[in-house]
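User: Is it possible to get a 3D structure for a protein together with its bound compound? The compound here is beta-D-fucopyranose. I've pasted both below.
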Amino acid sequence: MFPTGFVWGAATSAYQIEGALTADGRGRSIWDTFCSQDGRIVGGDNADTAIDHFNRYRDDVKLMADLGLTAYRFSVSWPRIQPDGSGAYNAKGLDFYKRLVDELLSYGIDPWLTLYHWDLPQALEDAGGWPSRDTSKRFADFAATVHAELGDRVRHWSTVNEPWCSAFLGYASGEHAPGRREPAAALRAAHHLNLAHGLAVQAMRAQNADSQIGGCVNVYPVTPATGSEADQDAARRIDGLQNRFFLDALLKGSYPEDVLADLSHLSDMEFIQDGDLATISAPLDMLLINYYSRFTVSGAPGGAASAAAAPTDSGSPWIGSEHVGFVNGGRPVTSMGWEVDDSGLYEMLRRIADEYPRVPLYISENGAAYDDTLGEDGTVHDPERVAYIDAHLRICHAAIESGIPLQGYFAWSLMDNFEWAWGYGKRFGLVYVDYETQARTMKSSALWYADTIRHGGLLSRAQ
Ligand code: FCB
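Assistant: Yes, that's possible. Here is the predicted structure of the complex:
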């Protein structure tokens, strides 16, 4: 049994589900541009319609209520609310989120709002994007306005979803929008995403002391493939870029010295200005953790074959450590090729609880893609996803028992959706979506999750 008050949620993001890219005065985002370019998205997919959540949000909220979710984590689309990322706000865009939030509240579902899940207004990218410091300031203005408009009905706020992805997939490997391959710019982007977080926290705190405000990071335990010095160095480097660059900044107010040293050939770091790290590390009410898998890495010359294959032609996101190879750790994999390792979740929770100032923790994303199919009897049988979530929830339970301040869990994702550069080929949902008809069908994992929530804990080990 989980403690009373444990948050049982599911998560989505605006770009992956909404569609309606030109409705009601929405501006363009970097993902609109990216999807229109050849070779960026598997199969040439785009999110023009996505899963039509913009028009179907009432039905989708009803599904959440049927599941018994106590909370729903979603993101707002910046260009829907502020089409050019600066200047005029679009009241109709804000209205959509007001309607969504009111619908959630009418079922007693707590809205958890993420301000940025990767859909930067194109106009801001044209002005330099995240490598430009001004984007952080634009984001704080945006956060302040959304918070002023929705702060009366949304209590839980998070700033930037997975800054690692925005910075390093967006500006170093080019796997994500805007698709740039500029390591030095990616490093600036990473700092400005952190700064954007800090400035947004400041702007929201100035308005309403009651809001619960957090940052959101994606963490991976990193294991060296062997005990060799090269492999251990590879693990230190990847852990530094993936985990410590963001956790240390947000929670300790510093960047790891070894990571800055690894990157010194790229920049003199003049973009890190006095006071930035104090802004970035202002106290948080909660930390949102996205967890999917573990990395096993090799630093051997020649590099081992990468187990973490990219879907499209892209470079390395691991700036300054491009030589590191990602090795198959021998665990079962999901259809993303991501290794299933629930023990890694415990490892990261323990480490965050032990090494950083104590702050309430939430798993804000966790889940798995499998090749689900709709059976002729109209059901979707996904025992592997049940087993994945069951195993990770057991870890959450063990973490709580051992005193780690973990207070909730959000499955990724509520529904199948547009999985970025992978397009629609990867299904993460508890709910199956037929992309032709937009019909929603609860998978067996959704029914199982609903039972779990109703019970307030895990019934018996999932098969
Ligand atoms: C995370 C993203 C989310 C989704 C999952 C699978 O990195 O935050 O949008 O793509 O991975």
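Residues 10 and 410 are 4 Å apart (CA to CA). Residues 13, 16, 161-162, 165, 218, 290, 365, 412, 419-420, 428 surround beta-D-fucopyranose (CB under 6 Å).
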